[in-house]
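About this split. The held-out portion is used to measure sequence recovery: a designer receives only the structure tokens and must propose an amino acid at every position. Recovery is the fraction of positions where the proposal matches the reference. Here is one held-out target exactly as it appears in the evaluation file.
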């Protein structure tokens, strides 16, 4: 029985998803579980979630010394996204699931004490990197729609730790999800054609939209600046896949999450005129 297992996962650094290698080593000694590799509080607390998930999934939790290294050691690790990878590493290192094919997968997802997989933020950048590295992505089923926005990636959605283990052992394979073939941008409630009059302003907007120019509007409140600006995206072309992924990645890691149905639309933000600089960067705005 091997006492060392390696599972691939992804961290978060802005809109990037750097690779995190979860190394699990089981050795003789007093029962203990230590996590190293610059983990923050939520990651340190994963030891209790993972232990409960493993036991409640009817697996055996090793009563030995368990060391978990999250490499790269200098990259801060945050959130519960590493729970699934840690659990699979413990099960693989203890010989309860095979090690053979783990290097073909990347795993993300938070575990409940009962073993259920919970959704996480920032799945889109993870899916892009998994695709670029030619690995399959195991993730919570709730995140499937967002990950499926990326072309040429094999997604394995699961609702429970038992489903993932059954897939890895070959007992019950999970159906692989792919990108939807047709992505239709739904109609919006506003349209540039709604604007009557304002011919010079509309002409300026049309020129700016056609040439991808910047545009600044000055005027007192109530003259229609925000009303026209909110309709500008309706005369802009759809984003390319690369452009959409770059803008969607920002929404994906935010607390508001990504609107999958409208991800190909050019984004529109409407901050209040009293919004502070911190609010502009960290939130306080509406997304359309």
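Reference sequence for scoring:
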């Amino acid at each position: 029985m091997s006492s060392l297992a390696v599972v691939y996962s992804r961290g978060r650094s802005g809109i990037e998803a750097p690779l995190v290698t979860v190394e699990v080593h089981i050795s003789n000694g007093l029962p203990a579980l230590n996590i190293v590799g610059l983990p923050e509080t939520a990651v340190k607390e994963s030891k209790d979630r993972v232990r409960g998930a493993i036991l409640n999934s009817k697996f055996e939790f090793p009563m030995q010394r368990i060391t978990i290294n999250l490499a790269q050691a200098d990259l801060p690790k945050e959130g519960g996204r590493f729970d699934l990878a840690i659990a699979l590493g413990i099960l693989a290192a203890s010989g309860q699931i095979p090690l053979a094919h783990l290097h073909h997968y990347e795993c993300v997802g938070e575990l409940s004490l009962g073993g259920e997989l919970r959704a996480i933020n920032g799945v889109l950048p993870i899916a892009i990197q998994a695709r670029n590295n030619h690995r399959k992505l195991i993730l919570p089923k709730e995140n499937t729609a967002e990950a499926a926005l990326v072309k040429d990636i094999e997604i394995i959605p699961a609702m429970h730790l038992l489903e993932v283990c059954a897939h890895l052992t070959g007992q019950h394979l999970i159906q692989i999800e792919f990108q939807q073939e047709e992505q239709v941008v739904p109609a919006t409630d506003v349209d540039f054609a709604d604007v009557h009059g304002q011919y010079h302003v509309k002409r300026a907007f049309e020129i700016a939209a056609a040439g991808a120019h910047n545009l600044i509007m000055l005027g007192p409140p109530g003259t229609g600046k925000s009303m026209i600006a909110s309709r500008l995206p309706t005369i802009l072309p759809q984003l390319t896949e690369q452009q959409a992924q770059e803008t969607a990645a920002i929404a994906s890691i935010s607390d508001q999450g990504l609107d999958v149905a409208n991800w190909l639309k050019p984004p529109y933000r409407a901050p209040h005129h009293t919004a502070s600089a911190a609010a502009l960067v960290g939130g306080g705005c509406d997304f359309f």
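Annotator remark: The chain has two domains: 4-169, 192-282.
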